[in-house]
């Protein structure tokens, strides 16, 4: 059954929206450079309307039930939007928490002299806003993690370019530390490049790889094996003296792989494998 405060919110939700907007616009931390006051008003009005409809259904505290689904969906969308707009997780969660202060200002004149009503009716509503604020924080965190993951994937793609050196010859310069995630991207990009260009020689240049351990060596060998299954022979170039010593100490067998100390040496070998001759210009 709707409570006294519920009836009050249904009758005066426009007043609640006005008080909430005044409170938000007076906040020094509100960054209107990222969001216009018109967009904030539209967003806040939609939230107040949905919030009042949800509590009018008689369920104040269980936000997992169906009447709160529009609110949960709205907060998830707000979190995603504010993530892209550059708001912090605290600012995003405070958007919901600030509604509590507006509610207090609205109802204090009605129940100030009746603490039993305040305890019985307002405190459950306050706990619900706390839950919604935490839900907003969690939604923001998930949205930001998805953005970071997508950006990392894009950076991995950009950091492992497959270069077509000549007909039938590809080069893949590797720079930076190699881990399992990046080596998987390297393998996928190389195999895709072999298929798209119908190449039969691929150069993996590790000049820019700072260290080679057992795991990195295993990943490189898996890439070489996968390329062979595609009909391409790999040449590993850029093996510096310290890396050569490390590979020997680790007991990694590269006897079945063509290696060269420099990219120039690998290119020379690749031309020979393709029966190409570089003739100086006259």
Estimate the helix proportion, in percent: 55-70%
Strand order of the largest sheet: 1-2-3-4-5
Number of helices: 10
Termini separation comes to 96 Å
Question: What average pLDDT do the residues reach?
Answer: 84
What letter string, H or E per element, gives the SSE order? HHHHHHEEHEHEHEH
Strand fraction: 5-15%
Whole-angstrom Rg: 31 Å
CATH architecture of the largest domain: Orthogonal Bundle
Dominant shape: rod-shaped
Q: What structural class do the secondary elements suggest? A: alpha/beta
CATH topology of the largest domain: Globin-like
- How many separate domains make up the residues? 2
Q: Main beta sheet, described? A: 5 strands, mixed
Q: How many strand elements?
A: 5
CATH class membership of the largest domain: Mainly Alpha
Uncertain segments: none
Protein name: STAS domain-containing protein
Organism: Heliomicrobium gestii
Domain STAS: 159-270
Keywords: Phosphoprotein
Properties at a glance:
282 residues, alpha/beta, Globin-like, Transcription Regulator spoIIAA, 2 domains
Notes on the structure:
This protein has 282 residues and is an alpha/beta fold. It folds into two domains: 4-154, Globin-like (Orthogonal Bundle), CATH 1.10.490; 163-273, STAS domain (Transcription Regulator spoIIAA, 2-Layer Sandwich), CATH 3.30.750. The chain is 65% helix and 9% strand. It has ten helices and five strands. It has helices spanning 4-11, 13-26, 37-56, 69-85, 89-111, 115-159, 180-197, 214-229, 241-250, 263-273; strands spanning 163-166, 169-175, 201-208, 233-237, 258-259. It has a five-stranded mixed β-sheet with strand order 1-2-3-4-5, with helices on both faces. Strand 2, helix 7 and strand 3 (201-208) form a beta-alpha-beta unit. The longest helix has 45 residues, at 115-159. The protein is rod-shaped, with a radius of gyration of 31 Å. The model has no long low-confidence stretch (mean pLDDT 84).
